[in-house]
Each structure stands twice: as structure tokens, then as C-alpha cells.
Amino acid sequence: MNYYDLAIRRKSTRSFKNKKVPAETLSQILNEAASCEKLVPDLQTEWKLLDEGIDKWIAGCAGYHGYMIDAPHYLLLLSADGPHDLENAGYAGEDIVLKLTQMGLATCWITILDPDGLKMLLRLDSPLKPAALIAFGYEKAPIGGSTRIDIKSPSDIHMKQRTGHIAPKLYVKESVYQASWGSPCDLSAWEPDSSLYRALIAACCAPSALNRQPYRFLMDKNFIYLACMKDELTTPSDARLNLGIVMLHFAMVISHQNTLHGQWELSVPETDYHLPEGAYIAGRFQI
Ligand SMILES: Cc1cc2nc3c(=O)[nH]c(=O)nc-3n(C[C@H](O)[C@H](O)[C@H](O)COP(=O)(O)O)c2cc1C
Fold first, then answer.
1. 176-178 and 215-220 beta bridge pairing
2. Is 107 near ligand 1, meaning CB less than 6 Å away?
3. Does pLDDT of 260 surpass 70?
4. Which of 1, 181, 188, 250 is the most buried (most CB within 10 A)?
């Protein structure tokens, strides 16, 4: 899989064709899901495939303000409780989102507002709890066709707006600090097609709840740190899913471009990076 291209090509879709995905493709998706990337490999998880119509039952428990997206299929990730369970759900879920993108399918992450209510309404008999929900199917308008990023120079990357769907993203130069919060990072020395640069571009294209992207990167020595910012519009659960999603984009691109097979470290020694109030370091990746 070319994770870089997929990270750039992916976008959320809220308008699906009234057409089912063939049964053999659905079983291929479930097989892929069973072996998807994980941030916390030992944590027990299970994917469930839900069909059209559940949006009516579970409205109120999921979706922005309880408004569910009507799609022919949904994937629900159930997870055991544990440290970094939702970051892991974001990481695993986004791996599936990119795999679905590669298969030509459209996707949309859906906020889970009430995991217990959702579990009850879906009559799920499992000790695991709903952690991530993704709508998928065929998009009504054709997918793809337009380029999403516009690289003018290594330090000047812009997102191109696409007709019909506009979700502007962070620029790399605005999202990476050097060693201390707010200190700009000199990007001019970086090759635009270096694995680190491409991994940061992919990270800046990551989906986030309400497209808020409440995170930034800090470079310090041979590590890149991911800082999560306080954001009043993002629910605590979505904030942690967002982190897993952005970590997946970064890790997959840097690892696939490189021989380096790094891993996000989630328990990070405390260092004073002068973070704003309410922000914290969610993890670091050796580069
Ligand atoms: C954790 C999470 C929860 C989301 N919840 C919803 C949702 O409930 N309803 C919705 O329409 N979109 C939802 N989205 C999709 C975002 O609105 C979308 O990713 C964002 O606007 C950026 O657009 P893009 O995905 O096209 O880049 C969610 C995304 C994430 C990552």
C-alpha cells in the first residue's frame, strides 16, 4: 500500500450511493481488519460489520450532535479497556480507512457519544466496548481526480481546495516546532521528498473530529513528539482517536518510505516544552 498517496487522497464522505458492497469484498475487509496495524498490539479488539438501517436505531448515541450518517455499511471496533485504548482504536481504524480508500470505497469516521447506549441498542453481547465507528460504501459523486496538496517549495505547502468537499488542513510549517512550543522549525534544509517530510505531510492530511486538528509536532534531537492541545469542541474520546489517527499516518509513511520501522512510544519522559495550558505530549517517534 502506498500510504502517502492514500493519506492525501482520503477524504470524508457523507453522501453514499444506495448500493451494497459485494459480500466477498465485505469478507475481504473483515480479513484485512483482523490484521490491521495496532498501536497497543496486546489490547484485545474485535471488528463488527453493521449494515444499513442501524443509523435509525443508534441516532442519538453516535454522530455529531447525535446525527448519524446514512451509509450502506459501518465498521465498529470493540476494544478492551486499557491504557491508550482509544489511541489504539484511532490507529487501527485509520489503517482500515486507508485500506478502504485503496479499494475505491468512501468512508467517514463517526463520533461515538454514548458507547454504553450504543452497545445496548446494538444488543452486543461482548465484554469489549465500542471504541471506533466508521461509515463506508460507494460515494455518490466520483471519488478522487483532484490533487489535494500544492507544494510550492519545501517550506510552502498548501492544501488545494476541492470542489464539493473542502477540508483545509494544517500546513507543515505551522504544525512543527523546534524543541519548544512556538519556536518555528527551519524546514528549508529538508528535502521535500524525504521520508520525514512526507510523513509530516501525511500527518497534516489526517482526518480529525470537526477538522479541528488539535495537535502539533515538536522536533527535539532525534525524536519527533506529538503534542495534544486542549480543544473545547473536541470530545475527550475523539481527541484520543484523533491522536491515534495522526500517529498512523506519520508512522506508516515514514516506515514505508524508509527501512526504518519505528514505533510510537506512548509513555514519554517529562520534558518542559513550554506547552500551552491543557496540552500534553501524547507520544514520541524516533527519527
Ligand atoms: C474521531 C472523529 C470523529 C468524527 N465524527 C464525525 C461525525 O460524527 N460526523 C461526521 O459527519 N464527520 C465526522 N468526522 C469526520 C470529520 O468531520 C472529517 O474528518 C473532517 O471534517 C476533515 O475532513 P476530511 O476527512 O475530508 O479530511 C469525524 C472524524 C474523526 C477523526
1. parallel
2. no
3. no
4. 250
pLDDT in tens, 87-119: 999 999 999 999 999 999 999 999 999 999 999
The model carries a pTM of 0.92
> CA 115 → CA 79, 131, 205, 233, distances in Å?
11, 7, 27, 19
Ligand 1 geometric centre to CA of 235 (Å):
12
Q: Are residues 156 and 50 in the same domain?
A: no
Residue 41 and residue 132 in one domain: yes
Q: Verify that 223 and 126 share a domain, yes or no.
A: no
Contact present, 45 and 29 (Cβ < 8 Å): no
Residues 115, 9 within the same domain: yes
- Per residue in 139-155, pLDDT (tens digit) is 997 555 444 444 444 44
CATH code (residue 64): 3.40.109.10
> Looking at ligand 1, which residue's alpha carbon is closest to its atom 31?
208
63 lines ligand 1 (CB under 6 A): yes
Bridge partner residues of 78 (DSSP): 46, 130
